[in-house]
Amino acid sequence: MQVTETKSEGLKREFQVVLAAAELEDRLTNELAGIKDKVQLKGFRPGKVPVAHLRRVYGRSIMADVVQNAVTEANQKIVEDNKLKLALEPRIEMPEDKDEIEKALDAKADLAFKVALEVMPTFDLVDLSDVSLTKPVATASDEEVEAAITRMAEQNRSFDDRPEGEAAQSGDRVVIDFVGRIDGEAFEGGSAEDANLDLGSNTFIPGFEDQLVGAKAGEARTVTVTFPEAYPAANLAGKEAAFDVTVKAVQAPAETKIDDELAKAFGLDSLDALKEAVRTSLSQELEAQSRRRVKKALLDALDSRYAFELPPSLVHQEFAAVWAQVENDLKSRGKTFADEGTTEEQAQAEYRRIAERRVRLGLVLAQAGESADIKVSDDEVNQALIARLRQFPGQEREVYDFYRKNPQAMAELRAPLFEEKVVDHVLGQVKLVEEPVSKEALFADDEEGAAPAAEPSSEETAKNETGAA
């Protein structure tokens, strides 16, 4: 086997591989000899089938295996001899001339094919000791704990039927049947029976609940509303609909009590235990947001300190995934790029930059993790799998089997675990200063609708961590 490098441009490499006809013949002969004692053909005793006959019967299929094995060997030889780390699987280009291939399969001519590949960029990890990051931190106040418990009590309160003939008030619950129509035609998803609606909760279309204030049990009303322009279902957005509503019951809220009995309704022994559980939950939420903020700041710092050539195929792959999400989001909301104040070309350019950032940061985190010998244990992956199973009550077995039979799915569980470990490691290299802030300030970016941080692709991180091409 003769391997010659024919192209080396940036991260792209191409090699010409030539398998001489004599080598093809030798490989085929060896394979035929290997199966001679195993094959049973009618009219021949075991082990006595002539090689020439075996060649006529199995020659082509075995030669196909010979060629495939040769391609695999060539790829391994190229990687090992040149000490390459691949970005993606090599692309094999066989000759376009079918006659040339036919002659090679008959071992009457040399087989020449091209191996095109992209390699990972090489770069040094930078010193981060001069990087200073601020970690905003907030604590759950007593007022927030009390407010959360009050909401829980209100959501858990009971409702009692109002005396016959009493009208519904804001804050009451009505039990209704309804059928919605647009231009006189009922539409999908616009009907329900025995639906509970808390007046003033703003859970239905704007204006719907207001028109049921004052209704009585047994009363029929027509409620006319207009779907918001930004309604998720594009076929309903901005359209006027009339709902035929039958009020089956009017119920008043019972007194809200915040006591040990409320705690027991949530599986806890006392109100103090409920308060502690709520405080812990709020603290975890605040810590998670604090983590997101400091992680974004770290990734921004890393992005500003690394500049190296990226494998085009990885960027294209990441961009395709991001762009598919963008298009699906627009379609689900019934929007266009013009509605978002941009053009498709401008949006593509912006999301391509995001894809490049994700690939770059993925490679940086992967190398940082490899350099620090960071590993994710099987126990940690199993815990992540158990957490995922809990998200699908009643389907645990099906979900478990899916992950156990799908290595890529398991890699997607492992990737974020690896990423978070690497982030912790890198955060240990910078100066981190905690800054007490209010809850409102901590979530300010989210509330202002800021775009999410372009974090590294978990899939890419996983591939680099495991050394997969």
Features:
469 residues, alpha+beta, 4-stranded antiparallel sheet, 14 helices, 47% helix, 19% strand, disordered C terminus
- Binned, the helix content reads 40-55%
The poorly predicted ranges are 447-469
The largest β sheet comes out as: 5 strands, antiparallel
How many distinct beta strands?
11
Output the structural class: alpha+beta
Which percent band covers the strand fraction?
Answer: 15-25%
Structural shape? elongated
Rounded to the nearest angstrom, the distance between the terminal CA atoms is 23 Å
What is the ordering of alpha helices and beta strands?
A: EEHHEHEEHEEEEEHHHHHHHEHHH
State Rg.
33 Å
What's the rounded overall pLDDT mean?
88
Contiguous helical run count: 14
Quick summary of this structure?
The chain has 14 helices and eleven strands. It is an alpha+beta fold and about 475 residues long.
SSE arrangement:
Elements (H helix, E strand, L loop, with lengths): L1 E8 L2 E8 L1 H15 L15 H32 L8 E3 L4 H8 L5 E8 L13 E6 L4 H15 L2 E3 L11 E10 L2 E14 L21 E7 L13 E14 L6 H6 L5 H35 L6 H22 L10 H28 L6 H12 L6 H10 L1 H21 L3 E6 L2 H4 L1 H4 L10 H9 L3
Parallel strand pairs: 5-11
Antiparallel strand pairs: 1-2, 2-4, 3-4, 6-10, 7-8, 7-10, 9-10
